[in-house]
Amino acid sequence: MEQKQAIYRILDANLDRAREGLRIIEEWCRFGLNNQTMAESCKQMRQELSQWHSPEIRAARDTVNDVGTTLTHPKEEKRENLDSVLLANLCRIQEALRVLEEYSKLINGKFALTMKQMRYQVYTLESQLMNKNNHQLLSQSSLYLVTSPVENLYEVVESALQGGLKLVQYRHKDETDVVRYEQASKLKQLCHKYNALFLVNDRIDLALAVNADGVHLGQTDLPISVARQLLGKDKIIGKSTTNPEEMKNAIADQVDYIGVGPVYETPTKAGKKAAGLEYVRYAQENASIPWFAIGGIDETNIEDVVRAGATNVAVVRAIMVADNPKEVTQNLLKKLS
C-alpha cells in the first residue's frame, strides 16, 4: 500500500509539472506568436493530462512532507532570454512525461502509452516553436552584422549585441577550420546570450557543427534544395542577390531572406560592381520575403538607402572597425526606425 501511494505521489507531481510547463508554452504561442494551432495543441494536451489526474492520484499528494519542495538550482532563479524560458519548460514537460510513462506502466498500460505518444507530440511542438521564434526574430531584425577578421572579434560583437543587434553572420574566408569552429562556437553562445540569431557564411558543415540558426549562401554555393535537405526545415537560409533575376530565383527556391547589393562598392566584395540604389528600389517594390540592403552601408549613407526603400540593412565595417560598436549599432538602429 505504501508503495502504491508513493507511485501515486510521483504521478500527481509530474502531472502537475507537465501541465504547468504546457501552460507556459501555450501562453507564448497565444500571445507571443499569435499562433492558434500551436496554442490549441498545448491546450488539448493539458486537458488530456487533466483527465488522467484522477481523484485517487490527487488524494496521494503530501506537500507538507515532500522533501523536494525546498530543492532549487541557480539557473531556475533567472533566465537569460526568451529561448531559455521556452527550452527550460519544454525540457520540464518532456521529463515529466517520461516519468509518467514509466511509473504508469505499473498501474495502467493505456496511461503509459498515452504519455509516450504525448512526449513525441511535445518533441514536434519544440521543433515548430523554435522555428517560429527564429523566423519571427528574423522578421523583426532591421540591422544585420556580417563579421570580418579583427583582433577583438568577440568584444566587438558583444558590444554590438549590447546595442540592440539581433542578427549576426560569421564570415571568415581565410582561416583554418579549427579556428573557424572555435570562433563560430563562441559567437553562437554570445548571440544566444542576447537572444540574437547566429548564422554562418557559406559553410553548411560549420553551421551544423556548431548548431547555428542557419546559413547565408552566395550564388556559387550549394543549391538551396541541398542546403535545406542538410539543415532541415527549421534552420534559416539566406542568399545573396545582385540583380532582379537572382532575386526571382532565390525567392522561387524558398529562401528565408535575401541580401540586396552591393549597394555601394566595398572591399568586402572586391571587384564586384555596385548594384546601386536602383536595385534597392526594385527590391522594395518586388521582394516578397525579408531582404537586407548590403554593401558599403554606414552612418554616412544609410539615410539614402532608407529613402530608396530599405527597412533592413546589413553592415560589416561600419560596426567591425568602429571605436564604439555599441554606439554605432544604436545609431544605425535609430536611423532604421
TrEMBL record:
SUPFAM superfamilies: Thiamin phosphate synthase (SSF51391). Binds 1 Mg(2+) ion per subunit. Keywords: Magnesium, Metal-binding, Thiamine biosynthesis, Transferase. 4-amino-2-methyl-5-(diphosphooxymethyl)pyrimidine binds at Q169, Y170, R171, H172, K173, N201, S240, K269. Pathway: Cofactor biosynthesis; thiamine diphosphate biosynthesis; thiamine phosphate from 4-amino-2-methyl-5-diphosphomethylpyrimidine and 4-methyl-5-(2-phosphoethyl)-thiazole: step 1/1. Its cofactor is Mg(2+). One of its GO terms (biological process) is thiamine diphosphate biosynthetic process. Residues 1-121 are annotated as: Unknown. 2-[(2R,5Z)-2-carboxy-4-methylthiazol-5(2H)-ylidene]ethyl phosphate binds at T266, P267, T268, G296. It holds the Pfam family ThiD2. Residues 122-337 are annotated as: Thiamine-phosphate synthase. This is Thiamine-phosphate synthase.
